[in-house]
Amino acid sequence: MEQKYDLTEGNIIRTVLFFSLPFLGANLIQALYGAVDLMIIGWYCPPEAIAAVSTGSQVTQIVTCMISGLTLGATVTVGKYAGRKEPEEVKRTISTSLCLFVAAGLLITGLMLVSADWVLTLLKTPEESFVSAGEYVRVCGAGVVFICGYNGISAVLRGYGDSGKPLLFVAVAGAGNVAGDIFFIRYLNLGVKGAALATVLSQGFSMVWAAVYLNRKNFIFSFRLSEFRIYREKVRELLRVGIPISLQECMVRLSFLYLTSVTNALGVAAASAVGIASKYDIFAMLPATSAASALSSVVAQNYGAGKYRRMQQALVTGMAAALPFSAAFFFWAQLWPKTMIGIFSKDMAIMEAGIPFFRTCSFDYIFVVFVFCMNGYLNGRGLTVFTMVSCCFGALALRMPLIYLMCRNMPGNLALIGCVAPAVSGIMAVYTGVYVWKLRAFPVPERVKQQ
After folding, report:
1. Where are the domains of the chain?
2. Interval 433-443: pLDDT, tens
């Protein structure tokens, strides 16, 4: 199969937008089936089940983010060699990547099964939700190898220039997840465990189907056991790019886990409200995350091809495309927060706790557009150490201490707690922008150059 898209040629605006749309579609489907878990739980189970899924999904999200960081390393590396038109290096990178992802999946599975109760205790999971949250984490943990394989295949395809096939694969997983939720929760009455089963089984099926499908389409890499080999030089290259990205994703999720632990201590209503808000965070930030992911692929190929001006234009295009959509969610949260919460729960206690939190935390929807897109640009250039340090600083030195101070001095004030995320993102946007500007990432008008 020839490369579907050559991201180094053609109109850059059209390239970024058309390559981003499948990312947006895939991320939207993933966010939807994550929200469906919570919605169906809210419809058919008591309030403590909502808190259980909210807390359990925070744990599984940090694992998914860690995996996504590693797989993005594969996207960047495959993209670099695809831009250089070196197919043998692309094959070696894909082979090594998939082997590493399977090994990582097995390791993470063991850790999750052993440490589930300990992690949930650290998060101060409400007592009435603790057992169900543990079931959710263990079931999802048992299926991590599927999540690794599923994300790994999509990552190498995107680096190779094809963002369409991953959308197809995630659509299959999303449809299976919705059907599984209804079957396990409504008809088999498995509650929280049913939501986790639906997620794992749907992703496992999609992973297997993706490998079979690509084999039939004569993809550059054949998914046969004889093809799976680890190349030592590729391991070093993949880890050099992937580990910093993985660490930065983990640090961000850890800071949100800390927020979960704080709000869990405030009771079921506060925990549920923040859990619902976290679902909207995913949707509101979808344009930014999609643009950032697309930028990593586009920039990687153009960096490999030596087309630096084109990389700069891609960054500006990505930010301009993402901003209006995130702004729409911001205005929804400011004007009609009750309608947002009501989609998930009609409980008045959750409504009262959630409205002030939604109004303050929604400012983050705007700032992350700039942070995510600039990070995507830097990751595509392989400058992952900067993005790792930046995210670690934002999470450990800013977000978590500020949450602690707010809760210590204004306990239970969710409006103030909600201010932390946008404040930190604003600071990160400023210093990342300065760094990117020094790299001459933004295109400078010709008339300014001449002056």
Report:
1. 12-442
2. 999 888 875 54
